[in-house]
């Protein structure tokens, strides 16, 4: 265990921790409204670590929907993580299966983005990734519990610009990712497709749809460029 | 992920997977900025879009996550007052 990389990962997770603050608090408040206790809210955040999935789950629980329907909805909403882990798989190839499973559990949109920015086409550092995942998860769990316990007493922290922490992080990470013209095209296409899809869907299908379309166009661009050099 | 990492993957698939992070980031970010509420909003009334423009500028210029965050959040805080 390398403490240095673990805390390097923890440091890189600070924007995520800040961004999860308003989200976690909001989730806690809503979970409490829908009848969960503080402990239940914290346990749910600890064991599932899925923002949108948990909002949906407590919403459906509150509406009296059964567990199988909640599981199915969550499976669909979180289907994008199949894609995320497929893209992360080559990077973690050399790590033991158990470690991979633990790291896979910690994948969210945000931890995936930070980890992939660090290990783009390189071998992953286990301790760095654990640092990112554990501290992000900690922020999510603590803030969910806090929201459930005293959420109604906390003033709206959005006016400090906290609601822009995650979009700003995604902007910086995206700018880092765009290293060549093909990637730029992929990003632009993906953003546009995702925005158009969002007008028609209310779940996260837009992310999978846009990513699949844009990455495929990227491969076609690569192919054409390769041919033209021969 | 445990199973996927053990498979041998052909080259175009590797390229494809290599584009996934950029595509995912753009796919999450674009609707968050262009349509923070339900509909598309390209105007000065959209505080997310107003904050995103300088954030992009700072990100491209400095390549620094910290500065991007600080400028983005500061603009957001000012716009929301």
Describe the 3D structure.
The complex is a heterodimer of chains A (230) and B (81). Chain A has two domains: 3-177, no CATH class; 179-230. Chain A has helices spanning 3-12, 14-33, 38-48, 51-62, 67-77, 80-92, 97-105, 109-118, 126-150, 165-177, 181-200, 205-229. Chain A is globular, with a radius of gyration of 19 Å. With 230 residues, chain A is mainly alpha-helical. Chain B has one domain (10-80). In chain B, 69% of the residues lie in helices and 0% in strands. In chain B, helix 2 packs antiparallel against helix 3.
* Number of beta strands of chain B: 0
How would you sum up the major sheet of chain B? none
What is the C-alpha radius of gyration of chain B, as a whole number of Å? 17 Å
Proportion of beta-strand residues of chain B? under 5%
What are the secondary-structure elements of chain B, in order, as H or E? HHH
Number of domains of chain B: 1
Task: Please give the count of helices of chain B.
Answer: 3
Overall geometry of chain B: elongated
Instruction: Round the Cα radius of gyration of chain A to an integer and report it.
Output: 19 Å
- How far the N terminus sits from the C terminus of chain A, by CA atoms, comes to 47 Å
- Count up the helices of chain A: 12
Unreliable spans of chain A are none
């Amino acid at each position: 265990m390398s403490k240095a990389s673990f805390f390097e990962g923890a440091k890189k997770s600070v924007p995520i921790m800040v961004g999860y603050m308003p989200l976690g608090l909001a989730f806690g408040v809503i979970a409490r409204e829908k009848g969960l206790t503080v402990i239940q809210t914290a346990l749910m955040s600890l064991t599932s670590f899925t923002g949108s999935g948990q909002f949906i789950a407590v919403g459906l629980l509150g509406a009296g929907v059964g567990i199988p329907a909640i599981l199915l909805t969550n499976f669909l909403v979180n289907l994008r993580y199949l894609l995320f882990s497929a893209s992360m798989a080559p990077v973690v190839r050399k790590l033991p299966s158990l470690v991979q499973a633990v790291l896979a559990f910690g994948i969210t949109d945000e931890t995936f983005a930070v980890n992939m920015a660090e290990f783009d086409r390189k071998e992953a550092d286990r301790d760095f990734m654990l640092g990112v995942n554990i501290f992000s998860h900690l922020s999510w769990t603590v803030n969910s519990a806090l929201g459930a316990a005293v959420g109604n007493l906390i003033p709206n922290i959005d006016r400090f610009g906290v609601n822009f922490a995650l979009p700003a992080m995604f902007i910086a990470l995206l700018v880092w990712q765009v290293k060549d013209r093909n990637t730029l095209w992929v990003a632009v296409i993906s953003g546009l497709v995702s925005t158009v899809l969002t007008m028609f869907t209310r779940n996260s299908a837009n992310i999978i749809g846009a990513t699949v379309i844009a990455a495929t166009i990227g491969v076609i661009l690569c192919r054409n460029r390769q041919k033209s050099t021969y | 992920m445990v199973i996927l990492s053990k498979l041998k993957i052909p080259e175009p698939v590797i390229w494809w997977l290599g584009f996934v992070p950029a595509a995912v980031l753009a796919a999450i970010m674009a609707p968050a900025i262009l349509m923070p509420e339900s509909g598309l909003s390209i105007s000065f009334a959209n505080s997310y879009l107003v904050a995103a423009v300088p954030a992009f500028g700072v990100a491209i210029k400095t390549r620094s996550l910290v500065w991007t965050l600080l400028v983005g959040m500061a603009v957001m805080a000012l716009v929301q007052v």
